[in-house]
Input
Amino acid sequence: MNHSLNILFSTSEAVPFAKTGGLADVSGALPKALAKLGHNVVVVMPRYYCIDRSNLEPLDEPLIVSMGTMGELFAGVYKDYLPGSDVPIYFIDYEEFFGRSGLYADESSFSYSDNDLRFIFLSKSALELCKRLEFKPDIIHSNDWHTATQPLLLKSCYAFDETFKDTASLLTIHNLQYQGQFFKDIVDVMEVEWEHFNPYELEAMDGVNLLKGGIFHADVVTTVSRKYAQEIQTPEFGFGLNEHICAHNHKLYGVLNGVDYDEWSPSVDPYIAKQYDIDNMSGKEVCKKDLQRHFNLPVRDDLPLIGFVGRLVEQKGIGLIAGAIEGFMHLDIQIVMLGTGEKWAEGFFSDITNRYPKKFACHIGYSNELAHKIEAGSDLFLMPSLFEPCGLNQIYSLRYGTLPIVRATGGLDDTIYNYDPATKGGNGFKFYHATTEALYQTVKWAVEIYRYEPETYQLMQKRAMEARFDWEKSAKAYEDLYYYALYAKRVQNYK
Output
């Protein structure tokens, strides 16, 4: 039987404390699932301005972190627990780096110019905190470029540290588009030898690519779906790192994210107009009417209501939706959107609302309550992403009996099974080419099934609601990879 592990989980965000994307959902849920398997997990993240430290427990003495040419910096540390668990989460408090309104960028969406220093500091602070706590991690689980420095640190300046001499590393890529590319002088801040600045490790276009270095040095690399693990090895989805990733695909694995069904389930959802489940779907009709009223749309049950929740950015297929919107408005449907993002998209869809007030409505911004209402009240859910490492909303939609319309990419392809007219199988609708025509025709196809084949639509709803993507399964997959990482570490040390 496998023994319990000490796991350091390093992240730049975690729900419910700070969130910009799916990384926060993973960071708030996976450590708890790992703890339920019997492992000792410690989570470390920054203490941003949005996190009220008056509700946190301070550690007595400051943390001393060496930053090379910057000298030694002193950080405060605060402690809390992930909600509903005994998993401790520690917050690194350093005003100059983390005392800002945004996590990675300012109010104008411009990335902070010192993001390299901020997150190298986070990576080092997490390691120094382990020493302070006398916590010897078997595994360090790093996430995205923000903590991708850690695998290299383990094999360089911390290689002979008693706390980490047997520690293995696992790096998860949540979105390859963001890689942490900076000027090369940060090598001296990292305090690693310049021999690591080469095309196989850190170097990229005479600068440093932190994610590239993490991929090279991590004992195991994961992505958040099996399909995405395949896609990032291609030029289309590799964002310039596809050849580098191919060179390390012997240690690359895809582990699909789970979802929290305690929060995302229509039978327990406190935000929706009426709760429902697979055996009694009457509440979904009430939720649809409530959603129509919320957006001031005509209350009609004879036409499909299509929902969208997500960032209004190109990755999410916003350009495809914009290109197809006039065609959609000629179908007998209603569409509601919730999201914020690129200014052109916010303006464009606000204008569509004004032009087609009985068929289209959008809320620019984000509301967790409204997101729940859209999942419950919609008949179909739109996710035409150009790429999607995992995706969560399509999984939420399945649970709510809201059939997803997706592009077959990444986690969308792994979780959605296309409707098959011959067998009546499937739990959603997929298209493959990222074109406006493909999106339009697939939406039209789904609408026709809803309107003219209600029995087929209801069978697909039942099948969708029966699907399960819980964190326990994902945590067990990570557990296996942790043990493999330890084995790989021992083999490497032996060599």
User: Anything to note?
Assistant: The chain has a mean pLDDT of 95. The radius of gyration is 23 Å.
